[in-house]
Specification:
mainly alpha, Glycosyltransferase, single chain, 426 residues
Length: 426
Amino acid sequence: MLRGEATADVVRAVGRHAETCAACAAERDSLQRTMEVVAAHVRPEVSPDARMRLRSALKDELLRTRRRSSRRFLRPAFALPAALAAGALVAWFAALPSSRVPAGDAVAAARLGRAVAKTGDLAPRTLEAVSRGLGWLAARQRPDGTWAPAADSDREATAAATALTLLAFAADGQSPRHGPRAAALGEARDRLESLVAAGFSTDASHKPLYAQALAVRALAAGYAIDRDVMTGDERRVARRAAEAAGRELRSWQRPDGGFGYVPQAPRSDSSCTLFAVAALAELREAGVLDATGALVRAGRFLDSLRAADGGVGYTRPGDRADTPALTAAMLALRGEETGPARDVTPQMLASIEQATARGGDALLSFTGAQALARHGRSLESPVRSLLATQQEDGGWAAAADSRCAAGGDTVTTAFGVLALAQVYAR
């Protein structure tokens, strides 16, 4: 309720209860004061290594607390404050960025080590390919700060390409506050915010869901990287922009839990839903908006599209059995609320490896690499394919891409960079 996530009925019910329950009224007021204090103060600088250790320690302690509480009875009077405290700490620190940190000597060495662990002797070539891909993207930023498939691209295509490019740089730890292209990325972020604030078309042929979802992801990712070096005012402005975009996206969810191309779409599909879920999950990870309820409903919708072999269909189970692209996107999701990543079989992962090895689908390379990494599989298949198809100028061509042709070389290259960056992502 205090975060503004509750419905009006819940707010009224809590208010009525607090009028007659002094304990709950005191707890509400205490939490409100805590939130106000936290919002009013700038967070201290924390090194990436310290942040990682703290996140790990908090997770371990929470697991131990859960095991202890399952073995003995805890009086409610003590259990509730303890759970609130543990949940607040884990949520606060889990929201801090871990994989997106500025590159330095120590970070670069650790990055190379992770890449070697995932791809062996392909690691140096992979890191070089990412650098070349980002150079290609940087050289094609337009004077207004955006990226677009073509000179006459509409608002939706421009926003999607700009958001994807920002995400590609973010995957490498670069942002409006970090990296050699910080100023240019700041211009892109500002322009993306204005595109989102102006709103997108309600014409399904423009597929505005993808623009909105990718923009949400980019704004959340940039906020997560730069939050600790922003002033209080800057942080509040950036947070409001990301939160407003996320709330707008969440309002597009249909009664069945899925998402379609436009608000109040007549039909949900798994592709739109997967893009929306990834965006809302990114917002939650950044500590901007907790859309757990929407994620749970979306997870149920995706679960309803699973075939007997565990694969995800488009609008019904089994209607995309010829490609694992949707299944890969589902398995790339993190968080139990996003649902159907359970029951992962070796056959499902093997089909993703085979599909990414064939190439010709940069989006599948990205989601496939995420899925394989999440489930402990080698990334050699997507990496070899992308290394083989990268052009001499550093980009990837969209002409032969089965899914990204309409997005042009910019979109294909951004997805290529995002896929290769998985080799050193934590």
